[in-house]
Design brief:
This protein is 17% helix and 44% strand. By secondary structure, it is an alpha+beta fold.
Amino acid sequence: MTSRAIFTSASKKTHRLLNKNLMDPSIFHKFADIETKEIAPGFFSKLIHTANNTINFIEVKAGCSVPRHHHIHEQCSFSIEGKFELTVNDIPQILEPGLFAIIPSDVWHSGTAITDCKLIDIFSPVREDYRNL
């Protein structure tokens, strides 16, 4: 092995050890440490709040629904698993993996889980009401 190869190999090992042992807690977080909160009947959320967004990882039981509502937040909704009927401006659409919705501010919407679902909602600006749960 050449001296350059030895140095590169040693540098990679050192880099891996440093990254493993010096995780910056202001940047890296453990998803398992986020408390699950039932934000509506059958809607179980893990919430992450940044300076500008709220990210909501939701598990929804089949048959559970959220009533028609609107808010100032722009909302991006994704189905990671399962089927969720999302109604926007009184038009229903099945949200399933591969399809997402961008709901503008103050637009009326509602939804019902057709099956057990795993969803992700991203809100901008931050959902202060969720931060205070």
